[in-house]
Design brief:
The chain has 156 residues and is an all-beta fold. It is built from no helices and 13 strands. β3 and β4 form a beta hairpin. The model has no long low-confidence stretch (mean pLDDT 94).
């Protein structure tokens, strides 16, 4: 009878592996239109005007009147790689300053329609809308008021 002798050494074992990288399209954010609180007539009492972040409809409180249909949301288009999450950051609500003057109105809120983290549609495009609230002083001086806020998008 013959016996095989074992040397105690094992044979080398190797397995191939693959290295991969997914290159995503850079996210781009384009402004479609600015936020508009519409045409406001101040009264003898202070009030607020709110533009709904989903519908663009304006509502008011206090002594202000809103008329016409000039109110609407701020609207942006985002493009990137479909199916991937992205994060939306909205800056602070600005103070609006009257053109040619020093009078101001404070935006008391700036609201994004939906969650801050979202999945990009398979098409690679999405739309963002924002609304907000502005405080109007009693007998606010007539004029066009504006202020700047920022919106940014990034992959998480």
């Amino acid at each position: 009878m013959l016996l095989a002798a074992s040397s105690g050494a094992s044979a080398a074992n190797s397995v191939p592996a693959t290295a991969r990288a997914a290159i995503l399209k850079p996210l781009t954010l384009s402004k479609v239109r600015d936020l508009s609180f519409g045409n406001i007539v101040p009264g003898v009492a202070a009030g607020t005007v709110t533009v709904n972040q989903a519908t663009g409809a304006a509502t008011k409180t206090g002594g202000v009147t809103v008329f016409g249909t000039a109110n609407h949301t701020a609207t942006f288009t985002v493009t990137g790689t479909g199916g991937h999450n992205y994060v939306i950051s909205v800056g602070a609500a600005p103070t609006l300053t009257r053109a040619g003057g020093t009078q101001t109105m404070k935006m008391t809120s700036l609201r994004l329609n939906g969650a801050n983290t979202r999945a990009m549609a398979a098409t690679g495009t999405a739309t963002l809308t924002l609304g907000g609230t502005v405080a109007v002083a009693a007998n606010q001086v007539a004029g066009t008021y504006s202020g700047i806020f920022t919106v940014s998008v990034a992959y998480p």
